[in-house]
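Page 42, continued from yesterday. The earlier attempt failed because a stray header line got pasted into the input along with the sequence. Redoing it now with the clean sequence only.
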Amino acid sequence: MDSSDTSTDADRTNPTSEEPQAAACPICRGAGYYVLEVPYGHPQFGELIACHCKDEEQQRVRALKLLRMSNLEPFQEKTFENFDRSVTGVQRAFARAYEFARQPRGWLVLMGGFGCGKTHLAAAIANEMLKINYEVLFTVVPDILDHLRATFGPTSEVAYDERFEQIRNAKMLILDDLGTENATPWAREKLYQIINHRYNYSLPTVITTNREPKAIDPRILSRMEDVVLCPERIIIEAGDYRRLPVEQRFSTRRRRNEPRGGYEPRGGWQS
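This time it went through. C-alpha cells are written below.
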C-alpha cells in the first residue's frame, strides 16, 4: 500500500465527503429543484423550479399511479394475439385497434352490443402500450367517477384536483363502457370536463360503448363525431361471443400458425 495514501475506508465511503458525487445533476446537485440567481423583487426570486433531471422519475411515478387506478390485472390476458378475428363483424375493429396501438393519435370509438369484443380490444391496446412503457389509464367509466368521489373522503391521501389532473391529462386514456355511469348532474359534468379537455388538446383517447348515440350526452357525442379527431366510429356487428359454444370459441387455434400479417388470432374470450 502506498504510504502517501492516508485516507481510510471510512473517508472513501463517507457520503458527506467533500468529493463531489459523479451522478449528481450539475444544475440542482441532486436536489430535484433549484432557484434562479435573480435579484430581490424579481417575479421568480426564491421560487423553486423543478429540474429536468427528475422528469423521467416523475413520469415513472405518474405512470405507476395510473396503472394502479387502471386495475388491469383481470384484463392481462386480453391481447391482440388471442382476439378471435374469425368472428364475423370484428375484422374492421381489430384492424383499427391494432393500428391505433401502433400509432396512438386522435380518438378511437368502438360501438357495439354486449360481448362483441369492445373491451377485449380496448384492453389489448392498453397492454400493448404498457409493453413499451407508454403511460396509459384504462378504466370503466363508472370507476373513473368513483376515483374522483373517493377523494372527498376523510381518509383520502389524494386531493381531488390532483386526481382530476391525473385522469384528464393521462398520455392515453381508455374509457370502457361509456353510458353505464350513474347519470347524476355531477357525474355528467365531470365526465364532460374530462372528455372536453382531451378533445381540446387532441389527447389519444379510446372510448367503448354499447349505448345508442341518442343515449349519449349530446356534448360528448358531438366530440366523438368530429371526423378530424375521430375519422370514424367503429360499429362492431358481431353477436355476443360469450354465448358461443366453447369449442367454437377456440376453433381458430388450428390456424394459429398460418401467416396472415400482424397478429394471428388464437381464440379467447371477448367482452
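Notes: The chain has nine helices and seven strands.
Reminder to self: strip header lines before submitting.
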